Amino acid sequence: MKTKNNEIRVFAPATVSNIACGFDIMGFAIDMPGDELVLRVSERPGVTITKISGDDGRLTYDVALNTAGKPVLSMVKAFGIECGVEIEIHKKMPLGSGLGSSAASAVAAAFAVNQLFDLNLSNLDILPFAIEGEMIASGSLHVDNVAPALYGGFVLIRSYNPIDIIKIDVPKNLYCTVIHPHIEISTKESRRLLPSEIPLSNAITQWGNTAALIAGLLKSDYNLIGRSLVDVVAEPIRSKLIPGFDDMKSAAIFAGALGCSISGSGPSLFALSDSREKAVLIAQSMQIALNNHNLASDLYVSQINNLGPRVIYLK
Ligand code: HSE
Q1: Can you give the three-state secondary structure of 122-180, one letter per residue?
Q2: Which of 43, 59, 230, 234 makes the best surface tag, with the fewest CB within 10 Å?
Q3: Residue 190 belongs to what H/E stretch?
Q4: Burial code of 94-119, b = ≥16 C-beta within 10 A, e = fewer?
Q5: What does DSSP say about strands 175-181 and 297-303: parallel, antiparallel, or unpaired?
């Protein structure tokens, strides 16, 4: 297979998953942060990772064991790409942050292969390759970061077998505040903490809120969105791993958030609101609350990123 271009640089966004009540079945993309990845046609045969930045030396250069490397390897094989391929990974977001760092790298890689080699694949075609990368990092099949990073917007995963992805329209003025406290939580570890079964009463609460959150988004009913941001499954357990969780959540609600919960497996928290002004105020309030726990943090304020990954350049 030939390509008319030799090099591409892409961006894939961070994602907030679970959205309180939708454990493993809901997620949305945000504008910032995200990962960048360069893919280059090379004289050297095979797939090689030539550079990784922003990871403090923690990610492997072994292509088959790397979150971005694996999707490239699989796609090269699946689509008969015969030329050598070099990968540069530029981590522009923290690892173990609950913001879908591994998903951003995996999606960036799969998206870049599709673009550079003109494969014309749909998102549904690309998704399994990105999932292969994500599974290396998390050790489990959950696509609530990978799917929104790839499709953009707010995504519902109705089914895993077969995969059924549904994009949900969100109100125009829906804003997301993210605070990333500077500690690290491994998704693998924090998934182990969760029970494999839940009481029926909790299931009823959870699916009531999940359904209502989708209804609230589709009807632009901010009040209903707020009432539905409740998690009785993961948050009570995982919040104990996050210093200052209760204080940050209270500060967010006091500052006008519709609701607030853990982003993915944490330690980041997200809060939704109905204006940029509120989203900024919520960010400041959460950070002040966390300062009392002597923990530094990063803040991100964003609308729902409807685009997903994008090409920075293609040459
Ligand atoms: N749904 C996954 C979890 C997301 O909560 O474990 C991990 O980012």
Answers
A1: CHHHHHHHHHHHHHHHHCCCCCCCHHHHHHCCEEEEEEECCEEEEEECCCCCCEEEEEE
A2: 43
A3: helix 187-192
A4: bbbbbbbbbbbbbbbbbbbbbbbbeb
A5: antiparallel
Closest CA to 3 of 73, 80, 109, 100: 80
Nearest to 176 by CA among 288, 261, 91: 261
- Known catalytic residue at 50: no
Q: pLDDT tens digits, residue range 154-185?
A: 999 999 999 999 999 999 999 999 999 999 99
Closest-lying ligand 1 atom to the alpha carbon of residue 264: 8
Residue among 42, 140, 45, 150 at smallest CA distance from 105? 150
* Amino acid 2: pLDDT: 60
Contact 262, 98 (CB under 8 A): yes
Question: 36: burial class by Cβ within 10 Å (0-12, 13-18, 19+)?
Answer: buried
pTM tops 0.85, yes or no = yes
**Closest atom of ligand 1 relative to the 262 alpha carbon:** 5
Q: If pLDDT is split at 50, 70 and 90, which confidence band does 137 have?
A: confident
134 included as an active-site residue:
yes
| Backbone phi and psi for residue 73, each to the nearest 5 degrees, phi listed first | -55, -50
What is the chain's mean pLDDT, rounded?
96
The values of phi and psi at residue 183, to 5°, are: -135, 170
For a pLDDT cut of 70, what percent of the chain falls above it? 99
Judged on CB neighbours under 10 Å (0-12, 13-18, 19+), 128 is middle
Which residue among 36, 86, 134, 235 is the active-site one? 134
Q: Judge contact between 292 and 138, C-beta under 8 A.
A: no
